[in-house]
Every structure is written in structure tokens, then in C-alpha cells.
Amino acid sequence: MSNVAEARSPAWSWLGFRLVETGDGTAVVDMTTTENMANHSGFVHGGIISALADSAMGRSLRTLKPGVSRAMSFDLKLSFISAAKIGEELRAAGKVVHAGRRTVVTECRIEGKDGRLIATASGTFAVTREKE
Amino acid sequence: MSNVAEARSPAWSWLGFRLVETGDGTAVVDMTTTENMANHSGFVHGGIISALADSAMGRSLRTLKPGVSRAMSFDLKLSFISAAKIGEELRAAGKVVHAGRRTVVTECRIEGKDGRLIATASGTFAVTREKE
Amino acid sequence: MSNVAEARSPAWSWLGFRLVETGDGTAVVDMTTTENMANHSGFVHGGIISALADSAMGRSLRTLKPGVSRAMSFDLKLSFISAAKIGEELRAAGKVVHAGRRTVVTECRIEGKDGRLIATASGTFAVTREKE
Amino acid sequence: MSNVAEARSPAWSWLGFRLVETGDGTAVVDMTTTENMANHSGFVHGGIISALADSAMGRSLRTLKPGVSRAMSFDLKLSFISAAKIGEELRAAGKVVHAGRRTVVTECRIEGKDGRLIATASGTFAVTREKE
Fold first, then answer.
1. What does pTM read for this prediction?
2. CATH number of the structural domain spanning residue D85
């Protein structure tokens, strides 16, 4: 899929986010957590999980038609459910729940490789959409 | 202040978070954003802002008496207000709003060097507190 | 189903909430909005939508095994998507996303009779669970 | 103050919300909780607290200059801190944290008559502002 090969932002590269697939209003993003991301308890810092969720949700709305030319998240809500281990591979599935003309509401689910739920998230984005 | 010299977690070092000061139920954390943190629009990735907020709030509750021996955020809510520029120094002021026996509620305000509001956040932490 | 006939709290009666069905970790609650619930714009007040979401989520966790003897929501997040009209019947579907020993994470979707999405919500509850 | 005498919406009347005062970007709203509002545990239903917070925040932005001609909350986040007793008088202090051209971010603090913190909230509103 061509999306997979697209240019990544500096943050995506630095954080190691990888686009796995996209659909209509959906995007799946993977990452492998590293030692750098450990908090005081030795688990993955919550902010890294937040970054992954924000990215998967932001990517999911780029699949909308008519297209989104600009998007800025202005609201992000996370529920952390289980701690993510360093070295663990995480998968975030973002999806559009509502696509308006000026705002888009999204949700995300982050799971570990073993399928356990790490976090859920929702986010609202202010968008500019292309003319049809 | 001895807190300032304390050991930082790997994530704090990697993200460049610096503890500036702590008070009773408060903590101020600074960071200088880098090129690595840029999103597609060229501004600081929202996840990095989230990480900073989470860290300042998590640090603020470590100042409580009786002390907090374990803390895990299980809820994080952010409102992004203005975009942060790459290279900009950000300051997060976290504070405890409510300190219970099992849960602590915190808030945070993130500002740019010029004093404009970048984001507000709130977070809830499950904690284990030391005996008095 | 016996649950449907169970005693309602004063708030449920006053707000007109009706339990439609329950499953494993799920609950569906209906309401018919009334003139009393109109905000300045003539639509249903957001707080009423919040009350419905909170109720459906709180009810969904009562279906867990081992049972929940006490539950108190301490976190509620809503995204309002389309305005609800006065007189419109609303349906809230609450479900448990994660059931821990001390905390339960839930989600909810509120729809109008015509199937359009009115709001999404998530909530975290502090619970006391019965012994197995 | 003329604001105090202004027409209330049906929901405000029904829920017993009373505007106490307004300032630049602030509004204080009181309510006396009633038996109707009791949840299963005999405390005030979280949805009623949500309605009060939503109202105080929505009212606070009506004080902005240039004025707000239309406002719709599309995001509401609450942290419930202590249970409110039936019959207890609650006071919600809403304030504008950021006033943009299209969106306004607000916060709220709800206290009991005895000054203890009942809940904190934040909300984002889509607004239409008058020309200056």
C-alpha cells in the first residue's frame, strides 16, 4: 500500500512510529518501545503512549473524503489500562467516529503484542477540508 | 534544592525534561523542544506536550505528605490551545488538586517562554501512600 | 429479564431513564427528552446527555462477575457530536472496556432514534468487588 | 447586576441553577440539590454535577468581548472528587481559559457549602463571535 511508504514526520521517525495500514477513516500504527522511553517505574512513559494515540488518530482522519488539508488536535483524552513494558511492541488502531466540516472526532485503542489492552483514547481535531 | 539534583528517569533525560522547582503539591518542569519533535505541520507533536504534562503532574504528587511510594496515571486529559514552535522552551506547572488515600487528582498548565498558554491538562493517578 | 424490572434510583425516575437490556459488561438505557431539558438554544442540555452516559456506563459494570458492590465514577469524558432535539428519544449503550479489581473503565455511545451519533463518552469508576 | 435577573433556560429552571455573579470571562452558578437527584448510593447523580459544570462554563463565555452569539460545547471532562449530599448547596465557578475566534476553552470548580472540592471540569466550546 502506498501509504506505508509515505514520508514520515520527524516525530514519527524519532519515536519509531510505523504506519501499518489505513482504511476508510482508520489507521493502524505500530511502535517498538525502547529503553529511552522508561519512566521511574521502568515502564513506558505515559506520554509516549499519548503520542502514539495522537498519531494514530491524526493519521486516521487523513483518509477521509473530501480530504483534510489541515488538522490540529485540540483535545486528547486517555485512559491508561495496563503498563507497557520496555521493548514491547505496541499497536494503535485509530478511527474516525464523526467527520464534520470543521471538527473530526476520533477514537483509539492501543494494544500490546499479546493482545492485552494498554490504553484507550479519544481526540477532537480542528480541520480544514478540501472542496469536493 | 535537593530535588533539582535528583536522578531523572530515562524518559526525562531523552525528552530533555528539567525539574525547575517543587513546592507543597506543585512541580515546575521545563523542556527545550527539538527538531526531532516536529509533526507534519512543523510544530511540536502533541504527544510530546502530553508527556511533559504527565511528567509535571506526576512529579507534583511526589511532594505530598504522607509520601507517595507508587503512582500510576490512569487518566490524562489535554486541551491544546496554541501550537508550540520547534526550539521553543516550554514550562509545565503541575499541581495537586485533590490528594486522596488511593487516588490523586492533578492539573497542569503549559506555557511558552513568551507566556502564552500552550495547553492545559488534568490527570488522575492511582497511588500507594506511605504510612504516616 | 429481571434487570429490567429492578428498582430505579430517584435520579433515573426523575430523568426518565429506562433500562432496556443488559449483557456481559453491557447495558442499554433509553430516555425520552422533555421540554424541561432545553438549553438556551432549544436543544437538550449537555448535562442531561452526560447524566445518561454516566448512568449507562455505571449500569454496565453492575453486570460484571465477580459482582460490584460499590461503584463511584471519578472521571467522565464526553464528546458531543450532534445536538439532540427536545422530544427525541435517546439510546445510550454502555460497555465495560476494562474490569480491574479496584477500577473499571467504560465507554458509551449515545444515538438518536434515527441512528445518528449524538455523543460518545468514557468513564472510570472506583469499585469494590465481591469475593469470588 | 442585570445578569442575575436574565431569563433562564428551561433546563436551568428545572435543575434549579441560579446565576450568582459574572465577571470578565467568569460566572458563578449555585444550585440546591434535591431528592430527585439521588443516585443508587443516595448521593447526587454525577450527571447533575456535569450539568452544573457545563452550565457555569457555558455561562462564563457569554461574558466575552467581542460577544459570543452561539456556543455549543463539544467536549466535557470531569473529575469527581467527593460525593455531594442530597440537600447540599453546590457552587460552580466557571472561567474562560482561552478565547479563540472559533473555540473557547473553559474550566470549572464545583464546591460544597463547606468549601470542600466536589469536582473539577474542563470544556471546549465551538463558538460564533460577534464582529467587533
1. 0.92
2. 3.10.129.10
